[in-house]
Amino acid sequence: MEVVRKYMDAKSLMSIMALPEAFHNRRLEVIVLPVEEPEKEKTATESAEIDRALSALAGAVPYTELSVEELREERLKKYEAID
Questions:
Q1: CA atoms of 44 and 56, how far apart (whole Å)
Q2: H or E element: which one contains 8?
């Protein structure tokens, strides 16, 4: 994670944000950190669909005479309704 650290006069920051009275006419240390955005939670339906798809895909692909491209097309048709 990157961090920016800078020393500034309070007067420079007062045009950007309100500062407590105790900070006026002082030199301040400013530290800038990125905010970690929370990951969007999946709905119960989305989670169930994903679990069902993963369960169906788990395990080795059975040996068939199909080519890789034919297997791919078969799987795409089978799971096209799942986002």
A1: 18
A2: strand 4-9
Q: Which residues, in sequence order, are CB contacts of 61 under 8 Å at separation 6+?
A: 71
CA dist 57 → 19, 20, 34, 42 (Å): 57, 59, 38, 20
- Neighbouring residues of 1: CB distance < 8 A, sequence distance ≥ 6: 33, 34
pLDDT in tens, 45-82: 888 888 887 777 666 566 678 788 888 888 788 877 77
Q: In whole angstroms, give the CA distance from residue 58 to residue 77.
A: 17
Residue 13 and residue 30 in contact, taking contact as beta carbons nearer than 8 Å: yes
Per-residue tokens: 42: 């999946």
Residue matched to tokens 């791919």: 72
What's the predicted TM-score (pTM) here? 0.41
